[in-house]
Amino acid sequence: MSAAAGELPGTVSGGAVRRVLEAEVARARAARPERRPRAVDVGGGSGSWAVPLAVAGCEVTVVDVSPDALASLERRAREAGVHGLVTPVQGDADQLAELVGAGLADLVLGHGLLELVDDPARAAAALAAVAAPGAAVSVLATSRHAAVLRHVLAGRLDEARAVLTDPDGRYGPGDALRRRLDGPALGALLEATGRLRVELVQGDGVLEAWLPNAVRDGGPAAVRDAAELEELAAGVPALQEVAARLHVLARALPTA
Ligand SMILES: C[S@@+](CC[C@H](N)C(=O)[O-])C[C@H]1O[C@@H](n2cnc3c(N)ncnc32)[C@H](O)[C@@H]1O
Questions:
Q1: Whose Cα sits closest to atom 25 in ligand 1?
Q2: Quick one: 16 exposed, middle or buried, by C-beta within 10 A (0-12, 13-18, 19+)?
Q3: Which of these CATH numbers, 3.90.1300.10, 1.10.4200.10, 3.40.50.150, 3.40.190.10, describes 2-143+181-251?
Q4: Pocket test for ligand 1, best of 65, 122, 138 (most atoms within 8 A of CB)
Q5: Cβ contacts of residue 111 below 8 Å, gap of 6+?
Q6: Which residues touch 184 (CB under 8 Å, ≥6 apart)?
Q7: 115-151 pLDDT, tens per residue?
Q8: pLDDT at 4
Q9: Cα–Cα distance list, 199 to 33, 88, 138, 218, 249 (Å)
Q10: pLDDT tens digits for 184-204?
Q11: How far is the CA of 24 from the centre of ligand 1 (A)?
């Protein structure tokens, strides 16, 4: 996963999520040293998480509805020299268990997925179903509260009010997202599957809306300092809810 930092030069966010995924890859490797960790990335898109996971030594199956995204994924995996470890599968999250098999994955990712699908409860159940007992399910989702503040900062008070009060946290019919969640709602969605227990909630992109361009454009040292601050802030409950995205790690319960 250290390759991810190299792959996204100059970014401030993502470090806290990467740390958690690195620990899960190490955990899977220690539990089953005889084979590579198996990851399933649902809505994995062009591979911004899947390719670093493959570079870290995982076998990664990426399920995505978009053929274009999967074509970019294959290109990216080839460029990173991990083409043989990445399996692209075109399909919907709803068909996940049929596509990749139930209960086989050591690590399941649903990053940027639950805000787009028709039925988030069904998608959460699908993520849980492909996780092996004890496996980690990592979910990253756009935060409702950060979106409220972002609209306020841009002077769009009507949109801010809509995101705050709409049951799905949308600003109107033109909103590209089907919903925005807060931390408790996201955790409840995963635990309602009956197969997952939430172990960690953290922010991703705590600083995104607030960081002045002078820092972003201040060169690698300034970006590194901001990334360190971002990682510290990610775990602070008061700041998590204003992070651009919420990250939840849930553990698949043993089967009865
Ligand atoms: C916002 S992108 C996130 C990409 C990647 N996971 C990341 O975090 O960078 C969302 C991806 O989910 C895919 N997607 C949307 N609905 C889906 C569904 N029902 N089943 C599978 N993939 C879906 C889209 O095609 C897109 O590639």
A1: 66
A2: buried
A3: 3.40.50.150
A4: 65
A5: 41, 43, 44, 49, 138, 139, 140
A6: none
A7: 999 999 999 999 999 999 999 999 999 999 999 999 9
A8: 39
A9: 24, 29, 10, 36, 6
A10: 999 999 999 999 999 999 999
A11: 22
Mean of per-residue pLDDT scores for the chain: 93
State the distance from the centre of ligand 1 to the C-alpha of 241, rounded, in angstroms: 22
Give yes or no for residue 76 CB within 6 A of ligand 1: no
Tell me what pLDDT residue 86 has: 98
Return d(Cα 170, Cα 232) in angstroms, integer: 29
Q: Out of 63, 64, 115, 246, give the residue to mutate to test ligand 1, the one with the largest number of ligand atoms within 8 Å of its CB.
A: 64
What's the pLDDT score for residue 13? 86
Does residue 227 have a pLDDT over 70?
Answer: yes
- What is the C-alpha separation between 143 and 134, in angstroms, rounded? 27
**CB of 195 within 8 A of CB of 250?**
no
Please check the confidence at residue 111 and state whether its pLDDT lies above 70.
yes
CB atoms within 10 A of CB 199: 12
Which structure tokens are listed for 63?
A: 């399920």
Listed by start position, the domains of the chain span 2-143+181-251, 145-179
Taking the CB of residue 74, how many other CB atoms lie within 10 A of it?
15
